[in-house]
Amino acid sequence: MSSAPHPLLRVRDGHEAKVSYAELLFDLVYVFAVTQVSHFLLGHLSWAGIGQAMLLWFAVWLGWQYTVWVTNWFDPETRPIRLLLFGIMLLALLMAAALPEAFGERGLLFAGSYAAIQVGRALFIRLSLRGQPLAANYTRILGWACISAAFWLAGGFSEGGWRIGLWSVAVLCEYVSPMLGFPLPGLGRSDSKRDWTIEGGHLVERCGLFMIVALGESILVTGATLAHEHHWDSAIVGAFLISFVGSLAMWWIYFNVAVKDATRVIVAAEDPGRYGAYYHYVHVIILAGVIVAAVANDLVIAHPRGHLEPIQAGVLLGGAALFLLGNGLYKRAVYGRFPLSHLAGFAGLLALLPVALHAQPLLAHALVLVVLLAVAIWETRSRPRTAIADAHSPVA
Questions:
Q1: Distances in Å between the alpha carbon of 183 and those of 12, 134, 172, 178, 179?
Q2: Which of 151, 287, 307, 359 could pair with 170 in a Cys bridge, judged by C-beta atoms 3.0 to 4.6 Å apart?
Q3: pTM of the prediction?
Q4: Could you tell me the CA-to-CA distances from 207 to 41, 134, 189, 235, 287 in Å, in that order?
Q5: Which of these, 288, 225, 286, lies nearest to 259 by C-alpha position?
Q6: Hey, which CATH number is domain 200-386, 1.25.10, 3.90.550, 1.20.1410, 1.20.1740?
């Protein structure tokens, strides 16, 4: 086996890898994809619709996440990797365009585009890695991508409950298999210490940029909803202001404390690959909270008076709850404990349930904002910077 550096791999010179302009361009497709997920949820606001939106969100997230790991290892400034990113962008754009009808007549197009992204990416990297240590790792990744693709495509050919069931299995294949080392008969499993030599700063920055994408989509939805209202009375303007400040509160909670320490924790970890995977995976919950909160903003701006239906109240409280849960798990990885401020935030949101069901939406929305601001202020004042977790155990 050759030990010479591969021409496509990033150079590990002790400096933090920087996000390239090609990666930033790549993320623009996901602005559209996140918008499509939030619009799907808004248009299918039922318990079944929430389940469907969750499956679609996992597809969007996993397509982005697996690509980020490629660009963590491989240099996007090289022509082959840049062309790979552009190819994935095209398929992701097609997938996002088909997303609103993914459980209708465009299910096969959605599933086929997604499967082509996952299998095509893994195959391209595997063929580029002949004789390299990462080759075995990507052989296993390619194997699991093919297994998942079979379920995605089978679901695309199916309808109703069969489609939901098959796509749920596909998501589990791709979400759980990395945590087990992509085990395959005859090929063993990947060793995260040996095979997942990641650059922690790049991974943290990429997650932060996706957070900006999601928050940006939330702000765009807020502005677009206000623009579509013909008469701007005090209630509508109030809902608009609350929604905007709510996006700022989410930014504050996410970026103010733990992001500055996450890189240091991943780099110092005994098993950076496994730690980085855990760190990356909890972001699916954080970002889901931002998407659901964007839907809540749209609902309240459009109808600030009256009463919320139970499903609407669930969206209003659920977006903030998901966001606090994901952030709490993320900060538990960094600091070794779930923040007390986030637990108190959960309690506050639970106490707001009867208010959300009986009070005007504008008041319920304002109280959710109060909870988020209280969490942000509490955490900022506590500044848990000295309590860095033991980096040997990301899930301890």
A1: 28, 15, 14, 9, 10
A2: 151
A3: 0.90
A4: 23, 23, 26, 35, 10
A5: 286
A6: 1.20.1410
